[in-house]
């Protein structure tokens, strides 16, 4: 029997699966397949023994419990003395098998990557949604130790599926209004335990992709006086997702429930499903701070990277004090109609009905192979 992943890859390349509104994701599929096939590929799960033996797993578990409790106390949902801890031995036993404990998918930066973002923890900049205190732990899978000198960059769409810092047909109403804000984008350094912390929101949905947050991991970058970074290398480009049942609850809250775009579910997103292959788990572990989503969320994920790997993200814009400005020669320039990375050979993208038909074809392929 032909492996499911190989069959899916061939089928998707034949049909030209959608990546973002109007864009094909052949590059994404091929990059992910190459990453999975690499003989030296390792995930966080490969480091379980070392991370447990060093005490890192126990330390992170206790830190996360304390952080969630701290957020609950600050919001008035708990008293300082009410912290209840889970048995660390149980956590160590299950590490690498539970949701959001391993993550290693390599995918494209997508058409809305804006370079030059600010180093900052709070990324909200006025955006409304399910406010999320998000911790990312970065692990060197070649040494099985936390990486303490990296810069972690994340970005995602707002609650109604619009990316800031860019203008493109299919990004909201296609106007330039989003160009002048860098909301939900930013960079943070990793601490002594390998953790970078952000305040953002659960991203909204848009046609062709399940809700997700992008990340890029920088090494050896220089901190500039304007609070940005420059130089160095990029070892990892990935995406984080949210468990579907919980995501359904988020989508019922305001302003997510005003989003008129068609939603792609997790089981319909090929990049997400490829991201789960080979022992990877691309889902964020999310907890309520209060009794409901509107009270805020705490989330975390562990990211396994090889610092010696070199990725070359292709930004479409660069952030300045005047907003996002085009990057000369970007492969995403003209997205989704004429860009080099679109996969249409310079032609026009399919219609919305065409994109939806392709999405349905993807689901049928998955169902057939599952049988």
Question: What secondary-structure arrangement, pairings included, does this model have?
Answer:
Layout: H1 4-15, E1 18-20, E2 23-24, H2 26-37, H3 48-53, H4 56-74, H5 88-94, E3 114-115, E4 131-140, E5 145-146, E6 150-156, E7 185-189, E8 195-201, E9 212-219, E10 222-223, E11 229-230, E12 233-241, H6 244-251, H7 270-275, E13 285-288, E14 297-305, E15 317-320, E16 323-326, H8 352-370
Helix pairs in contact: 1-2, 1-8, 4-5
Structure description:
Residues 349-371 are annotated as: Disordered. GO terms for molecular function: iron ion binding; oxidoreductase activity, acting on single donors with incorporation of molecular oxygen, incorporation of two atoms of oxygen. Helices cover 24% and strands 22% of the residues. It is of the alpha+beta class. The chain has one domain (4-370): Sandwich (Protocatechuate 3,4-Dioxygenase, subunit A), CATH 2.60.130.10. A hairpin with an 8-residue loop joins strand 13 and strand 14 (297-305). Helix 1 packs antiparallel against helix 2 (26-37), helix 1 packs antiparallel against helix 8 (352-370) and helix 4 (56-74) packs across helix 5 (88-94). The chain starts with a helix and ends with a helix. 47% of the residues are buried.
